[in-house]
Amino acid sequence: MENLKKHQAKILLLCWCAYAVIYIGRYNLSLAIPAIQDFLGVNKSQIGLLGGLFLWIYGTGQLINGFIGDKVSARMYIFIGLLVTAVANLAFGFSLSLAVMCVIWSINGFFQSMIWGPISKTLTHWVPPEKKNFAAVLISTSGVGGTLITYLIAGQMLARLNWKWAFWIPSIIIFAYSFIWLAFARNRPEDIGLASINSEISVDISISCSNNYTLWEVIKKTRLWFVIIACFAQAIVKDGINLWAPTFLLETHKLDIKTTSGFITVIPILSFAGMIFAGWLNKKFNYQEKTATAVLFIAGVVMIIGFTTLGSRNAIWGVIFLGLSSAMMNGANSLLLGIVPMNFARYNKVSAIAGLLDFASYLISGFAAAITGFVLDLSGWGGILVFWIIATIIGTIALVIGQIYDNKSLAAANNMLRV
Fold first, then answer.
1. Would 166 be classed as within a structural domain?
2. For 252-309, what is the HEC assignment?
3. Averaged over 58-85, what is the pLDDT?
C-alpha cells in the first residue's frame, strides 16, 4: 500500500508539472503582445487573431485528441505534445511576420491539446473515486502555477532582453521536462506490477466498458449540453483575462512592462486561491458540481461589476478585481473541466469528455479573443466587460437548469430502488 501511495504521489506531481509547463509556452504570448505589436507594426485586431487562432486550433485539437487519447498510451501522447510545444516556442522566437507567427502558434495550440485529455485519463487509473475531487482541483491549479511562472520568466525576459527570449527560455524548459515525463510517468499501476485501484476502468485500453454507449448517447443521457454552455461562459472570461490583462494595465494605467509583470502576478495567485475555494465549495454542496459552479459564476459577476466601477480608477483595484474575477472562473474551470470528466469513467469516456469540454471552452475563447481585439480598437474596454457579465449570467442559468434535471433524475432513481 505504501508503495502504491508513493507512486500515486509521483504521478500526481508529474501530471501537475506537465500541464504547468505548457502554460509557460502559452501565456508568454499575453505578456509579449505589446512588444510584438510594436515589432510587427500591427493593430489589436490583427494581434487578437494570433491569440484567437491558438484557441481555435487548441479547442479543435482537444476534440480530436480527446477521442484518440482514450485509445493510445497517455504517456507517449503527452511526451509528443510537450516535445513539439517546445519546438514551436523556439521557432516562434525566430518569426519575422504575423503570418508565420500564426502558423507556428497554431501548431503550438494543436500539440498542447494533446496534454489535458490523456492527463485526465491517467488520473482515473491512479486516483481512487473518493479522491477525485482532490486530484482534479490539484491538477487544475497547475495552470495557475504555470501562469505565475510565465509572468515571472517572460516578464524578466521582456524587461531585460527582448520579446524573443520570452519564447526561447520556455522552449528550453518544456523540452527538458518532456524527457523527465517520458522517463518517470506510467499509464497505470499495472505497468509497474501494482494492482488496479479503480474497478470502473478497464485494464485493457482497447476494451470498452460494459456500458458501450456512444459519445452522443452519453451526452444525451447526462444532458451534458448544460455543462457545455457553462464551459462557454467561464472560458470567455478566464481566457479573456489571461490574454488581455497585461495590455489593459499597460494602456489604462500607463505602466511599464516590468511594473505590469509584477502587478499581474497577483492574478494567478488569486486564481489559485479560487481553485482551492472551488474544491471546498463543491464538498459543501455534496459534490454537486453544477450548483457549486453556479455560485462561483454569481460571485464572478459581482467581481466583474467591481472591476467595471473601480478598476479603471486605480491600478491596484484593477488588478485585485481582475484577479478575483479570474479566481471565480478558474475555480469554475477546475470543477467543469477537472472533476466532471472523471464522472464518465463508467462509460470509458474520460479523455473524450475532457477533450469535448475543452474543445467547447477554447472554441468560444478563440472567437472571443478575435472579437475582443476588434471591439477594443472600436470602443475600448467597457463593451468587453458587459459581454463578460452577460456570458456569465447565461452560464449560471444553464447550470441551474441542469442541476434541476439532475435532482429529478436522482429522485426518480431513488423511487425505483424503493419499489
1. yes
2. HCCCCHHHHHHHCCHHHHHHHHHHHHHHHHHHHCCCCHHHHHHHHHHHHHHHHHHHHH
3. 88
